[in-house]
C-alpha cells in the first residue's frame, strides 16, 4: 500500500489519476503547488478565487470581442470608403434633408404638446367654474 505522502499518491490526489503532472514527476511544479494550495483553503476562499478567475476570463473574452469588433469596423470602413466617397453627392443632401425633416417634426411635436397642456389647463379651469355654478354647495 502506498504512503499518503508518496509522490504517486499526491499525483493521484491532485490529478485524479497516476498520470504524471506536466514536466515529469516534479510535485513542486507551479500547477501542482497551486492545486495543493487551492485544496487546502476554506470553501469561502475557493469561491472568491473562482469568482476572480471567472471575472478575469469574462474580461478577457470581452476584450477579445471588442478587438474583433473594432478590427471589423476599421476593415469595413476601409473597404467601403471608395463607395462612400463616390456616392457622397447623394449622401450629403440626403443627410441635410433628413436632419431638416426631423427638426421640423420635433418642433411641431413640442408645439402641439405645449398647446395641449394649455388647452387642458384652460378647460380644467373652465369646467371647474361651471361645476361650481351648477352645484353651489359643491
UniProtKB/TrEMBL annotation:
Its main location: other. The keyword Coiled coil does not apply. It comes from the Eukaryota. Keywords: Lipid droplet, Membrane, Transmembrane, Transmembrane helix. InterPro entries: Oleosin. The chain crosses the membrane at residues 52-85, 91-110. The keyword Transmembrane helix applies. It is found in: Lipid droplet; Membrane. It is a multi-pass membrane protein. Pfam families: Oleosin (PF01277). Belongs to the oleosin family. PANTHER family: F27J15.22 (PTHR33203:SF4), OLEOSIN (PTHR33203). This is Oleosin. It comes from Brassica napus (Rape). The lineage of its organism: Eukaryota, Viridiplantae, Streptophyta, Embryophyta, Tracheophyta.
Amino acid at each position: 500500500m502506498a504512503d499518503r505522502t508518496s509522490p504517486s499518491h499526491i499525483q493521484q490526489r491532485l490529478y485524479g489519476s497516476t498520470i504524471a503532472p506536466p514536466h515529469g514527476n516534479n510535485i513542486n511544479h507551479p500547477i501542482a503547488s497551486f492545486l495543493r494550495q487551492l485544496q487546502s483553503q476554506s470553501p469561502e476562499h475557493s469561491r472568491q478565487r473562482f469568482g476572480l478567475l471567472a471575472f478575469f476570463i469574462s474580461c478577457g473574452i470581452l476584450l477579445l470581442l471588442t478587438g474583433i469588433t473594432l478590427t471589423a469596423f476599421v476593415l469595413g470602413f476601409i473597404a467601403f470608403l471608395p463607395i462612400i466617397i463616390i456616392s457622397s453627392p447623394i449622401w450629403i443632401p440626403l443627410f441635410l434633408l433628413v436632419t431638416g425633416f426631423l427638426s421640423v417634426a420635433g418642433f411641431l411635436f413640442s408645439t402641439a404638446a405645449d398647446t395641449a397642456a394649455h388647452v387642458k389647463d384652460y378647460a380644467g379651469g373652465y369646467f371647474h367654474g361651471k361645476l361650481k355654478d351648477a352645484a353651489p354647495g359643491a
